[in-house]
Model the fold of this input.
Amino acid sequence: MGNEKNLKVWKLALLGFGNAGQAFAKMLLDHEEEIASNYGAKVIVTAIATGRRGNLVCGSGSEATDAEGIDLRRALADVKSPAGKFTDETVLTSMTTMEIVAQADYDILVEMTPLNIQTGQPAIDHIRGAFRRGKHAVTANKGPIAWAYRSLRDMAKEAGVRFCYETTVMDGTPVFNLAEHTLRLAKVTEVSGILNSTTNFILEELAAGAEYEDIMRRGRERGFIEADPAMDIEGYDAAAKITALLNVLMDAGLTPDQVDRKGIEDITEGDIQEAASRGKVIKLLCRGWRNADGTVHASVQPTEVDRSDMLASIDSTTSIVSITTDLMKKLSVVEHQPEIEQTAYGIFGDVLRVICE
Amino acid sequence: MGNEKNLKVWKLALLGFGNAGQAFAKMLLDHEEEIASNYGAKVIVTAIATGRRGNLVCGSGSEATDAEGIDLRRALADVKSPAGKFTDETVLTSMTTMEIVAQADYDILVEMTPLNIQTGQPAIDHIRGAFRRGKHAVTANKGPIAWAYRSLRDMAKEAGVRFCYETTVMDGTPVFNLAEHTLRLAKVTEVSGILNSTTNFILEELAAGAEYEDIMRRGRERGFIEADPAMDIEGYDAAAKITALLNVLMDAGLTPDQVDRKGIEDITEGDIQEAASRGKVIKLLCRGWRNADGTVHASVQPTEVDRSDMLASIDSTTSIVSITTDLMKKLSVVEHQPEIEQTAYGIFGDVLRVICE
Done:
């Protein structure tokens, strides 16, 4: 870090500071020297907006925080404290999230607020606010990609800024970047996958003979299953993910409500055993393909697959996306048993992309 | 193509014009307009060297061939003719392959000569010859990556030219490019996979109860099995591939003779059935990991995997590479049932990379 004064400084505004945001902040701290030596850059955080921990923003006049940004180690310690609230008076602010988007001093907005699966808001407005000011945006929130991809893409292009969203499907596993950077001139004709780990876990446990209530209890304990699992079980989460994939990879211009969606709520243990007797396994499969009229059809459906099929081996929190193109036929990418660090890496990788490409 | 005069011209020298080379030539012809509109480039072929069809080179003074390169449609028709030899007198040459490397007018050398799995030669010398002249190189031949990766990488760096080799493992499926472009700052700690389709096909057929001689006959008919299958069956091909992966992804500095290699030559139908009785499948698994002393260990070994494991579902010509990194844990890439066009796309994608990055 001898040449610190020659490093290009990149300022981040973090919207959301939950598990993924905290893991991302740790990853930034851990890689400070590598970012300097590999990219000649120094990444600082100049704003953090949260739901109930308080909001932080730099630029209140303190020279130390203006040069070094928010003290991330302190912010991380604060959220682990009993009160769970930010305490650094030099940066605490009464600004709202939208005011931070509109007024704070940052180069890259990092959107990590909770998903509203019905509208994609307010995350869409956050990102629009950044683009309006000529700032880059990285989103881990899939709402904007599922509900407003085309308009955000066009807005970013017009503003001459980057819009990155690798984390929105399969965490940091390269899916969007794979298509963009490694499949040049290949046209995507079909996308499919198993994208929701809650339903995958439930189907697997039912197949193993577990009781529904017991599955839900253990799933909640292991963190796979949310307090209100309806969004997963009824296929809304999977629908948002396949929509995001199709919007980016096939310029589908879809919204999640246009997906031919069926969840696993009606699948019984009897259905699963009957399928098993024929050598089949039931998976909640997401698919999209282009219709003859050029539109893209998307579906989320419980689907029987052969026990010898690769899809049958996708267990618990593992997920898979298969992409078929005209030039490379079908290839698949599998993420094995991710933890929160893999989500953080998706954001980290996108930030590095903005910095160095 | 209205602005043809503004296109940047890239000249290719093709060493080898077998099935992959021909499919690549067709892909170039089919995408001429897209290359122009997307990259502002025009790719022409100014030399082709072959074992027994003759050699072609531009620059003999004809203005037409100097501007447009070799007539690829005619070259493709020639190799399909009964004589199978090039006929275009305006470009036929008595120059040898090494003379073409050293003297022909090209920007990118495309190395597609047959693999010498024991030495990597003469492909290594071809590529060195290109680098010595400050030319880029794309190789579909894995010999150079398995036998001389470090020295070629350093030579390319010194010469300020690109060295691309995506096709050497799993055709055009992004493996090397995935690591380079989508996993920034992530360190590879382990690599594994099923990389040889001949042995995969034989093991699968033995498990299904087929007779060895019958398998070999059908494999030859379908093009999976070479006239002399020893290189596949004894694990030499798999060893070269895992070496290539480890040399690039983990800077292993290995050669294929350092791989702890065992083929499938001693696996009997009895072994397979005994494994099946325990719910296991035998696969020829390639693996590499870093030892405590920093060196990289590589192995190719027949290995039992659970029937429910993803590896068990990798059938016939499908292949898989799993990459474990510190930041993204384990992810896998699968190529499903490739044809020769997928090999051609690997070369095509690498050429596009040289042109536009």
Observations:
- The first strand of chain B starts at residue 8 and ends at 15.
- Chain B touches chain A through 46 residues (CB under 8 Å).
- The CA atoms of residues 150 and 251 of chain B lie 8 Å apart.
